[in-house]
Each structure stands twice: as structure tokens, then as C-alpha cells.
Fold this sequence. Notes:
The protein is of the alpha/beta class. It has 13 helices and 9 strands. It folds into 2 domains: about 5-165, Rossmann fold (3-Layer(aba) Sandwich), CATH 3.40.50.720; about 170-290, Orthogonal Bundle (N-(1-d-carboxylethyl)-l-norvaline Dehydrogenase, domain 2), CATH 1.10.1040.10. Helices cover about 50% and strands about 15% of the residues. Helix 8 crosses helix 11 and helix 8 (about 165-195) packs parallel to helix 13. The longest helix has 29 residues, at about 165-195.
Amino acid sequence: MGPKIGFIGLGIMGIPMCKNLLKAGFALTVYNRTQSKMNEILEEGAKGVSTPKEVAISSDIVIIMVTDSPDVEDVVLGQNGIIDAVKKDSIVIDMSTISPKVTKSIAKQLNQKQAHMLDAPVSGGLWGAISGTLTIMVGGEEDIFNRAIPVFEAMGKNITLTGPSGMGQTTKLINQILVSNTMNAVAEALVFAAKAGANLDTTIEAVSGGAASSWQLSNLGTRAIKGDFSPGFMVKLQQKDLRLILEMARELNIPVPSTSLVHQLYSSLEAEGRGDEGTQSLVRIYEKLAGVEARSE
């Protein structure tokens, strides 16, 4: 029998990730701040509890999938938190995207309880979570990583140990620089194409076969020209990640001008009340600027 798994955070990503863990045969205990959101997973066979502490009591490996650094600090270090009952030699895996600095601090405090921490943020959005094909970037000790591989394999395909504690989060921020700037280029290119009178479907088909090919173009670009702005990854969550990048860039004293621009453009979407839309909504900003709608015929 494999390790008993705990899962904290049943949001847009957490629910399908839990379903894949259950499908892989793991015993699962779950907690969510809004208790009603647990019902779908409880019906699938998971056990529900009322505090993160109870998750730790029931689990050999605890997975966290919440929004931001303060949320992770709260479920680990807060009242009735994981740290109050974490088992010796157990593993806490934070799959949220948070500050690398906060990650290292939490890992140190768990180590003092003779427990281990892996920071393992993901890429692939809702579709990757549903299909179990998430890319998982892991920071931590190699022997602890090796123990957790069967659990990661239930949720993802491209699983990489990137370095010591905090390096998983750092790698995710690097990923988000690439993702957000590519989405910005896709939005700009599609509106350029629309204004020039190009057929958007054939344009995407043509350029996707060459050096301009990208996941954002093929998947999110295609969604955008169909007017589908439902979230695989929400604007407001992308903004949180961009904020973390800008904070770390200030600490490192390095310029990130393109990322700063994308952050401002997404701020325009948030100001319009579009924070819950998918990141492909960035095309809306360029449409307004150009006075044209980039939609397929």
C-alpha cells in the first residue's frame, strides 16, 4: 500500500489533481477553507477534515495547492496548521506558486520538526490538471524527491528536480516570464493579422509549423479568435505570479522590462473586471488599441 496522501486547496486545479490521485489508488484526506467545495471529492471516495492539522495527522505526504504565499504560510504555520501535527519524516509538497524566499523559510521550520518539504509548482493549467499531464518543477533534496515520484506521476508527466529548496518556485517564475511574454506576442500578432485582413485560422495554421510555434499560439490563440475567454489559467492568478517575478527582480537588481509591460496590460483587464477570465483575454487590450476584433470567420 502506498503512502496516505493529504490535499489542501480544492480550487480549479486542486479538484482534478485530487481525482487523478484517487484514480491512481492513493488514500486521500482533503481540506478546503470553503467546506462545500470538498463535496465533489468526498463523493469520489476521499475523506474530509476540518483543519490542515487533521490532514497532517492522517497523511504521510501532504500536498498544498492554494493561491499565494500568505495562504501557504497560514495552512502550514497558522492556527491548527500542518506544523502542529506533522509526522516525523513525512513530506509536505507545496504545488502552489509562491515566493521562493517564503518557501525556504517554511521548509526550514518543517525541518525543525523532522519533516521535509518539496516546492513543486506546476505548469499546464486546468487542462493539464484534468489530463494528468502537468509539468512539475521541484525544489528539495533528491532522496525526498525520489520518494514522492509516484505521487507526482499521478498528476504530471514532465517532472524535474531543479535544485534545492526554493528552486522549484524560482523555475516556475522563469516559466511565467516565458509564458506571459509569449502570450503578449500572440495577442499582438493576432490583432496585427486581423487589422491586415488575414484569415486568422489559416494564419495560426501557417505560422505554427515554423519557428513561431508555441503552446500559447496553438491553444490560447485558437481560443481567443473563437471568442473563448474561459480560464485554463486566470488573469488574476497570472498577475500574482508576475508580481512575484517583479519582487524577485527587484531583490536581484535585474531589469525585466517586457514582464513589467505584460503586468501593466493585465492590470488593464483587471480594471475592466476580467480577472477571472483566461490569460488569452490579453487580446482584448490590443483589440481596443487597434480598433479591430480578432475573431475567426
